[in-house]
Amino acid sequence: MFLRDGNTSRRILVADDDPVIRQLLINIAEREGYKTVAVSDGREAFRILQADADFCGAIFDMMMPNIDGLEIIRYMQTEKRLRRIPVLMITSEKDLKFTAASFAAGATLFLPKPFTAPQFQSTFKILVHERSVAA
Hints:
6 helices
C-alpha cells in the first residue's frame, strides 16, 4: 500500500469508494508523473495519514464508508505535519453547503462530480502547484 521510491514529494493520496472514479484519478495523477497511494474508504486514508505524511497532495471523496472526507480533513488540520498537504475534495452532492463545508474544514480545492478528465487534470495541476507554493 505504501510507495517509497525516494521521491516522496511526488506522492498523492487518493481516497474514493467508487472504483471507476478512483482509477481515473490514479491514471491522471500518474500520467502527470506522480505516484499514488489509493484507498477505497476513509478509515484506510486516516490510517495512512497517521503513519505517513509524505504526500504533496490528497484527493478525498466527501462521502465514503467509515470516515468521510470532511472528517479526514478536520483530522489533518489538527496535525501540524499534515496541515501542509493541500486537499482536493470531490463529491456528487449538489448542495452548495457541501462546498462551503469542505473549505471550512480546510480543503484547498473542491470539484463536483460528474467531472471530465480535462476538468480533473486542470484542478489537479492547481492542487500540486499549491503544495509547491506552500513548501
